[in-house]
Amino acid sequence: MTESNEFVPILSLNSIEQPTLLKRCKTLIEKFKSLYNNSPDFIARAPGRVNLIGEHIDYAGFGVLPMAISNDVIIAVNFSNKKGYTNVRLSNIIDDKYKQKSWDFEGKDKIVEIIVEAGVSEWSNYFKCGYKGILRHLGIDNPVGMDCLVDGIVPIGAGLSSSSSFVCCAALATSHANNAKLTKKQITEISIECERFAGMNSGGMDQTASIFSQFGHALYVEFLPTLNATPTKLPTTNSPITFVVANSLVKADKVITAPIHYNLRVVETKLAAYHLGQLLFGEGCENLKHLCDLYSKSTKVTIDNLEKLSDYVDQVYKKNQNGYTLEELSIMLKLSSTEIYDKFIAKFPVRAERFHLYKRSKHVFEESCRVLKFYKVCTSDSNMDDIKVFESLGNLMNQSHQSCKELFDCSCDELNDLVKICLDGGAFGSRLTGAGWGGCTVSLISEDNVEKFIQHVVTNYYNLKFPSLSKSELNDAIFVTKPSNGAMILKDL
Ligand code: NG1
Ligand code: MG
């Protein structure tokens, strides 16, 4: 259970045992000194995540099961309490690609402008999201000045949550510099909300995984009635369960494609929630925002009642699997097109001719059901044979991929090829992870088969499609992930 008074750990840099993280921190500190002629006061760290199961259901309010990866964002910060000095300077160690930015606090109402231009992604926006979110939440009107240097190693556009790790890290850095005592839950909730400034109407899986994860554990995250994160051990088997991430190397720039992909999916699930709410509970269910709101506060989400909802979706929508036009929706929902626009679309614009209520809501209920089944295998102490454990978790992951492909339309040819190759290479389960439309797959392997598995994928995917990859690019593209620590502040630099 989430303790509501738990804080992000503040650790001494010397206590860090991971050699690569320690080395990166030391390099960051040296670079900081030569860049700003000053030493950093602390380093904030927040990791990316791989989602094991539960795709595109967080924004519908249902539980998911990600785990933090060791790839992370670290930000070295020097803050200044000098009166009236509220300037922020933000630099990246890759300074030719990510140019230095600086801005001044513009007063409590404005804080800082986040410019989201159609078709352009600006690296500093994610920092500004976290910065703005914290200052707004705290109502601060004289923030400290900050010099910051960023080193991020979560692959971008890969479905491993590079954006949220950056937002969470910026929120953490800003709150620590301004001496705010915010709990993990507060930092997470602020990060979830403020990442939406960047243009995606996202759920809260990534930020929760980044802040709450614990070493050696996956994280079962529930959102309703309130955010709750439960560290969860994977079942013990003779040859341990291992997850391998493989990047399709198709980059998905989700902010740019949001109007036809991510944000559109969010709208479709919300339209279904509103409509199913009317059918099940009568008109006047304007408050149903998420499919999970179909549950009353006192009803637990169970495998059984999810299956019933999934059957109900068949009854209501199956005859019309090709979706509905805005005009058709207007009749179904008893709302004018303008009302539909204002209620569901205005904040995060989308473009579509037809809205797919059947496919999206069917996926959401079935996928939520798979998360519960996966969680059950992890937490029940039945003495299942190893092979059964691998097969049952693997099958759930395979079904998840199939559903992302067929019902949620968030896969792509390369991801489907890669999943197939991973299964041929001995994975018990393989699926796209994260938002999809490119990015990574995650595969479930028994540890003693990892080397052979990776070789198989390299031969059949990377060597054929990307023959010119260097050894180090290959190591970045396909790697074993162990459940890593969540966010932290490092001091005593
Ligand atoms: P990625 O793949 O990191 O963009 C996105 C959302 C999640 C979740 C997944 C799909 C953001 C920041 N994250 O993750 O909330 O909805 O897609 O399961 O938009
Ligand atoms: Mg200072």
Shape: globular
Q: Tally the helices: what do you get?
A: 15
Provide the list of bound ligands, each named once.
2-acetamido-2-deoxy-1-O-phosphono-alpha-D-galactopyranose, magnesium ion
User: What structural class do helix, strand and pairing data support?
Assistant: alpha+beta
Q: Estimate the mean pLDDT confidence.
A: 94
Which strand order do you get reading across the main beta sheet?
A: 1-13-2-3-6-4-5
User: What is the rounded distance between the termini?
Assistant: 33 Å
Secondary structure tally: strands: 13
Q: Which CATH class of the domain at 10-233 and 484-491 is shown?
A: Alpha Beta
Order of helices and strands: EHEEEEHEHHHEEEHHHHHHHHEEHHEE
* Proportion of beta-strand residues: 15-25%
CATH architecture of the domain at 10-233 and 484-491: 2-Layer Sandwich
GO cellular component, one term: cytosol
GO molecular function: ATP binding; galactokinase activity
Catalytic activity: alpha-D-galactose + ATP = alpha-D-galactose 1-phosphate + ADP + H(+)
Protein name: Galactokinase
Summary keywords:
493 residues, alpha+beta, Ribosomal Protein S5, domain 2, 15 helices, 13 strands, 17% strand, globular, binds 2-acetamido-2-deoxy-1-O-phosphono-alpha-D-galactopyranose, binds magnesium ion
